[in-house]
Amino acid sequence: MPKGSKELTEARKEEIINACEKLYETMSFKDITIKEIGKATSFTRTSVYNYFQTKEEIFLAILQREYEKWVDELSLIEAEHDALSINEFADKIAKSLEHRKLLLKLMTMNNYDMEENSRLENLAEFKMAYGKSLDALDRCLAKFTSFTETKRKEILYAFLPFVYGIYPYAEVTKKQQIAMKNSNVPFIYHSIYELTYNCIKNLMKGKSE
């Protein structure tokens, strides 16, 4: 790591992360390289390696940031409401994810590669952000339902694996639609909001105590 203030280090890491995120809007994960990311920053490609050893570490940092944003939104739901019905709770959680498309895309399509090709310290920092999302969801369930801790854990560990599969259902490409049509598989579009709302509502149905 080069010498410099903590503020400068964080600013440069943020610039790298932002550059990678911007590239990901138009390029695939496999086509993005450290070289391409370096071109999109104000410093050299070799300087990128002072902050991240692999492109997967940069993507993992993007995913961590997305988790942190989601945690902030979940915490706001908890703070702003005294009570929520099951339908209202499902609505709030669904809305918290419908504009987190980048979070859903990364966790669905590239999570394994990011974790496998990142240093342990980077992965541990990311897991802390992931853990905070679990805590934030659990706090919301504890506040807005009368579920026991066991029931809350049941919901969490059914919902979170489901979240990893939302993106492919909500973001179907034209090519995929044509392939489904040619295979006589009916295509019914469901939005991120619809998928999340229905999942939460069904998981919570009949579980109030």
Structural class: mainly alpha
**N-to-C terminal Cα separation, in Å?**
54 Å
Low-pLDDT ranges: none
The oligomeric state is single chain
**Radius of gyration, in angstroms, nearest whole number:** 19 Å
Q: What's the helical proportion of residues?
A: over 70%
CATH homology superfamily of the largest domain: Tetracycline Repressor, domain 2
* Mean residue pLDDT: 94
Helix run count: 12
Strand content: under 5%
Q: Write down the overall geometry.
A: globular
User: How many domains make up the 3D coordinates?
Assistant: 2
Question: What is the count of β-strands?
Answer: 0
CATH architecture of the largest domain: Orthogonal Bundle
Largest sheet: none
The CATH topology of the largest domain comes to Tetracycline Repressor, domain 2
CATH hierarchy, class of the largest domain: Mainly Alpha
Q: SSE order in H/E notation?
A: HHHHHHHHHHHH
Write a structural description.
The protein is mostly helical and 209 residues long. It folds into 2 domains: 1-52, Orthogonal Bundle (Arc Repressor Mutant, subunit A); 67-204, Tetracycline Repressor, domain 2 (Orthogonal Bundle). The protein is 72% helix and 0% strand. The chain starts with 5 loop residues before the first helix and ends in a 5-residue tail after the last helix. The model has no long low-confidence stretch (mean pLDDT 94).
Question: Which terms would index this structure?
Answer:
12 helices; 209 residues; single chain; 0% strand; Arc Repressor Mutant, subunit A; mainly alpha; 72% helix; globular
